[in-house]
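Predicting holo structure, adenine bound.
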Amino acid sequence: MRIDIISVVPELLESPLAHSIMKRAKEKSLLVVEIHHLRQWAVNEYGQVDDYQYGGGAGMVMMPEPLASAIESLKSQRPYDAIIYMTPDGETFHQKMANRLSLLENIIIICGHYKGIDDRIRQLYITHEISIGDYVLSGGELAAAVVVDAIGRLIPGVLNNETSALTDSFQDNLLAPPVYTRPADFQGLKVPDILLSGDLKKIEEWRYEQAMERTKKRRPDLLQEEE
Ligand code: ADE
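Done. Tokens:
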């Protein structure tokens, strides 16, 4: 999979995508992430990519020409399955969306800044608008890093244990059950006996019950979801 990210603050994306599982995905060539500085498509020699908004009001708007040039330049090199705009007024990101996006081959992600991007770019090019939650970040970069991480770890071969993404919270609309490691007794709190029993069938049943109990208590809305 290849993800091209267009940003005015590429530095914000470099570190989150350079370590741990994302690093492994890149090293195994399962995921290529290219970060492009929007200023290379600026409208003038001063690197201008934003301008005042029509109709007045505080805050600059990202101009359409640099974004269109960036997208066209990428599209001339390969076909893209999705052109995503990170924005607080987009569809709220969730695991099923991550699952679907992880099946695509080439994706562009646009990170907004200031008041956002000129609406004509949304009308002309954007195929998905994604929010990571009901709060406003200073720009789309941290949100894009969240989406790339959630997608990247689902690409087959990225996680060491192929099954481990399947037992994450939200797969099957359930939160994950509690997990324990050594020592078996920590400050008087003991690991549940069942996990030490070696009975894999019973352990699986216990985990399912715990996941169900947790979900009922913390996120009953997940149990109502159909999709
Ligand atoms: N840009 C600013 N806030 C955002 C959010 N909550 N989700 C996605 N992109 C954003």
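The chain has two domains: 2-152, 169-226.
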